[in-house]
Amino acid sequence: MTDSVTDRVTDDDAVLTRVEGRAGHLTLNRPRALNALTHPMVTRIAEALTAWQRDPAVETVVIDGAGERGLCAGGDIRLIHQDVTSGGGAASRAFWRDEYTLNVRVARYPKPYVALMDGIVMGGGVGVSAHGGVRIVTERSRVAMPETTIGFVPDVGGTHLLARAPGELGTHLALTGASVGAADALRCGLADHVVPSGQLPALARDLAAEPVGDVLPRYAVEAPAGTLDGHREWIDQCYAADTVEEIVDRLMAVGEPAAKETAETLLAKSPTALKVTLAAVRGARALGSLERVMEQEYRVSCAALSRPDLVEGIRAQVIDKDRRPRWTPAALAEVTDAEVAGFFVSPVDGDLHLGVDS
Question: Which residues form the Enoyl-CoA hydratase/isomerase domain (predicted)?
């Protein structure tokens, strides 16, 4: 999720659509806001996917982001703050209903959906890319679900993706909000191929004339070395604990400087968001399908609107920018099991129903 920057892009221009040969192209076009997603953008993407699904001339869909910084840094969190403080959260719930439905649609899209995950890809940017059938990262990619930093919980299917990562790598990324590069994105199941960023325009041009399976081998390269595997032993050991408190204790005691630093990172996050995130990732493992996990995420996201930490986290990060959130409760020990369970009940306007798993 990202801070919004006022720009001159209208709702109609915030997602550019075009067809080149056999490929339909979606370009997120709010570069000054790092292509932050809004409700009209989600609607426009969904409309394009509907039209192209019916069009036999369009054989491949490609999504990318305008500007030099990245595909998308997430949802426009200033709008969420504004909605909660002045409108009670109804607009945010409506946005998430459509966004999460779109995320599942991307995952189930019947034509090749090629996501060019160059640069920053976070939060909602992960939702419109990492569920796609062909996910391409570059040497510039930084992929993350950083929601705990603003008192929120990974959504847009993030808990589904991270629950399926090897060992406890997904739990580590979900709780810390840490970003990963190309190799670790592949390792964690967030991407499929690495292509040098400078080659993306040529790859996109070739997709106008040839199938994805013929084009990719000409551009894909071996992934560079990642960093997570070097920390797997302590990550798997520490994050296997049953509670966030025990995870922090293990990180402090394991004797690895990186683990101690991670514990300190966790202790700066929202205690409530950490506990709900752990429960959500563990729940996602049990639920299995993306549809069922997204329905769980909708419950959790809606619950966050009525808790203090989301508004406070956004205030500290992007409104006042003091980076000093005052979490409520302020300590892990003060977050009760009952409070965590309250995030998983049906929201006031009803559950999200995403149909039969496929």
Answer: 24-344
The CATH number given to 153-160+227-348 is: 3.90.226.10
Domain ranges of the chain: 1-144+181-226, 153-160+227-348
Residue 155 annotated in active site: yes
CATH topology classification for 1-144+181-226: 2-enoyl-CoA Hydratase; Chain A, domain 1 (3.90.226)
pLDDT in tens, 95-104: 999 999 999 9
318 contacts 311 by C-beta, under 8 angstroms: no
Give the pLDDT mean for 240-261.
98
Judge whether 297 counts as a catalytic residue: no
Q: Is 65 a catalytic residue?
A: no
Q: Residues 54-59: what's their mean pLDDT?
A: 98
Catalytic residue among 74, 75, 133, 170: 75
Q: Which of 99, 147, 295, 309 is catalytic?
A: 147
The whole model's pTM is what? 0.95
Distances (CA, A) of 13 to 9, 70, 170, 197, 213: 6, 18, 35, 24, 31
Structure confidence at residue 224 (pLDDT):
85
Does the annotation count 124 as an active-site position?
yes
| Per-chain mean pLDDT for the chain | 95
